[in-house]
Amino acid sequence: MRKLFWVPIIHIGADLGKAKDEITLVKNRILSQKRLEQHAKTISVFWDRIQDYFQEQDIKNMKIFQDGLAAGGKIGKKIVNELALKESRNFMVVSDLVDKGAIIMKTEDIALIRQEQALFMNLLQSKRFFSTMTNYLKYKFYKTRLLKKRDIYIAGQINNNLKKGEKAALFIGAVHNVAYFLDKDILVFPLKDPLLVNKYFKAFSRKKNDREFQYLSNELRCKINGESKA
Known about the structure:
Low-confidence stretches: 15-26
Number of domains: 1
Number of strands: 5
Distance between the termini: 11 Å
Order of helices and strands: EHHEHHEHHEEHH
Shape: globular
Largest sheet: 5 strands, parallel
Mean pLDDT: 84
């Protein structure tokens, strides 16, 4: 039996790399300061819950697969530590797990990551209406295909590297569908419902529906159900 802890995440701050500043500018134009502050608190509590959960688990030799990480071993560990120092909560949690004996794994194909990043940056940096619409349509057209290719690759990395009797954790953006491509004998334990995380992000991104946003925010802050333990 192989076991996989599933951590659906929302990328923020240091996780966004070169896109951080552009995304921050867009959010500040669209969303109120109150909403942004509540979002920051929600994400902080969310990661507190994740960290608390793993503190109760046997971490030694657990394999860690991380969204966007195209290297394992010493290089992968160096990347994780550098992003943890930039106060990425995601990578701070992963760095802590590695310090306790978990093993960081190559998760992604760097070529696919670069393709998606290039499309996204072209969209964010578009200044005129025509170029914005062109890059938006191009991004939408290729995004789904690239996401599927990434999911297939990530699932392949897990399928091939997670051996019988081993445990792993996958930290992955909530829009991904890696589980669909996993081998059937891998038991998946979601620490949070990916659909809930997706709904929360959509509610956060809208100006209205404050009641829905508040409800989903509270749900995201809840402690992780003990039934998720493996």
